[in-house]
Design a protein that fits this description.
CATH topology of the largest domain: Aldehyde Dehydrogenase, Chain A, domain 2
CATH architecture of the largest domain: 3-Layer(aba) Sandwich
Shape: elongated
Number of strands: 9
Order of helices and strands: HHEEHEHEHHEEEEE
Largest sheet: 3 strands, mixed
Distance between the termini: 55 Å
CATH superfamily of the largest domain: Aldehyde Dehydrogenase, Chain A, domain 2
Number of helices: 6
CATH class of the largest domain: Alpha Beta
Length: 223
């Protein structure tokens, strides 16, 4: 109850959100309308709509109980936008069952202590197979181009370089591999010349190196 009470006022005071496209905004409004009509959900708080209307959407906070959540698959569906669904539970096994029923998601956040982590090790094990990023006592805001940052959860929401915009694999969205086989060194792009005149990192025989290439019989791939 304390969590719900502390969330109500910030939600009510939240300014409108402008979503990326009209389609996303329409999908958000449709999802919120659907949840308003569900008898197993309670509307706890909602931000005031802008007087001049416009494309902005408002933050909404709903609440339900664990059994209602487990019986209604639609409640676990993502609504992309500023909506929150609180799920009340009374037993530990309800928390674990809810986690098992989740589809693949980008992130999962756990708020707790080190003791909680020990007591709920089985919950962490379940979530590890459901999401791409586990967060402790934080919020899944912001992404970074780093090797440690990944995008997505279980297949097909994996960190696939063809679609992700997160982490170092994102560069593959903008690359097209080209293979040069049998070319003399003088005709190769600088990226592939034996002497490595650009001093860039290259993969040779499966190993990353910035050293010049000695064996001219190798086949190189440029991106």
């Amino acid at each position: 109850m304390r969590l719900q009470e502390r969330l109500q006022q910030p939600v009510k005071e939240t300014a409108g959100f402008h979503l990326l496209t009209e389609g996303i905004r329409s999908s958000y409004e449709k999802g919120i309308k659907s949840r308003r009509n569900k008898s197993n959900l309670k509307l706890v708080a909602e931000a005031a709509r802008s007087e001049n209307g416009g494309p902005a959407v408002t933050a909404v906070l709903f609440e339900t109980d664990a059994q209602s959540f487990l019986k209604d698959p639609e409640l676990s569906a993502e609504i992309f936008g500023p909506s929150t669904l609180l799920v009340r539970h009374s037993r530990r096994d309800e928390v674990l069952e809810i986690a098992r029923r989740l589809e693949g998601h980008l992130t999962a956040t756990i708020h707790g202590t080190e003791e909680d982590l020990r007591d709920f090790g089985d919950l962490i094990a379940i979530l590890e197979n459901k999401v791409g990023r586990l967060i402790l006592n934080g919020f899944p805001t912001g992404v970074e181009v780093s090797h440690a940052m990944v995008h997505g959860g279980p297949f097909p929401a994996t960190s696939d370089g063809r679609s992700t915009s997160v982490g170092t694999q994102a560069i593959y969205r903008f690359s097209r591999p080209v293979c040069f086989q049998g070319f003399p060194d003088s005709a190769l792009p600088d990226e592939l010349k034996d002497a490595n005149p650009l001093g860039i990192w290259r993969m040779i025989d499966g190993e990353m190196t910035r050293e010049p290439m000695v064996d001219q019989q190798r086949i190189e791939v440029a991106s």
